[in-house]
Specification:
By secondary structure, the chain is mainly alpha-helical. 67% of the residues lie in helices and 4% in strands. Strand 2 and strand 3 form a beta hairpin.
Length: 317
Amino acid sequence: MRRWTRSRWLPVVGVLLVASCATLISLSGCKTIESLGEVGGAVGQATGVMTEEQAKSLGRASKAVAKTFADITPEQEYYIGRAVAATVLKTYKPYQNKKATRYLNLVGQTLAAASDKPETYGGYHFMIMDSDEINAFSAPGGLVFVSRGMLRLCENEDDLAAVLAHEIGHVQHQDGLKAIKSSRLTSALTILAAEGAKSFGGEELAELTDAFEGSIGDITSTMMNSGYARSAERAADESAIVIVKRVGYDPNGLVEMLKEMKKQLKPGGADFAKTHPDPDDRIKDIENIMGRYSAVSVPPVRQKRFERNLKKILITE
């Protein structure tokens, strides 16, 4: 078995630090990382744990981590998203339908390109979950999951676009990263400051491993169990309205979806009702932005495309 030395763990710790910064502090606040690195170096020198050069090394590493966050670090976000996606796939299997998946990605990629975050490190990817639950998730970096149950609620492509644009909004606002508990950052920074340039021992490695795995758990639990705060859902809806308008879809599709969800969702169920605010509250917020709801009018060619590609999904088996 390969020995997990400090050099191999620093990239992983960097991922954790960058992600957690999104919750705790603003970009300017990331100076905290530099300060902690400097303090850790000074303490290490004073106690004899580090040489002067090792203390300087820790300071340089801390500044590098802070700079990485200032540069937005799409690569770290991507790898966190992949880990979250792997966790989601333990519960929800992919729906094996190439035609439907290709169509979902065509619509999704078009919407993503019109968002305020059109590019991510690994690109946007849209997948259908083989589940009758009415649900949709988005992992950091642009990985979006939509259930068959959710797709069955869509009556047209504009409705589908509204669902996907809402999830893209969460990616755009990095809501997944903001779900990481601040205690994870504190734990990782403390270990870094204490250990400095030394090779991490077994106990420290175990703590870092727990912190990283816990961060993934924080995001997944928020997505699938507790849900985001109402303010985050409101912001995602606002972004969805902007995105669908830019592409040429009717934003009233978002209200249509919420009305349909209100009819279908069961309080306490393992679906959208569990992770999102009441549809009526969201509809009120949306109408305050774009005015009163009016029925979506869909061009026949667009409707045919929608029905042709999702034919098997729209029919309950």
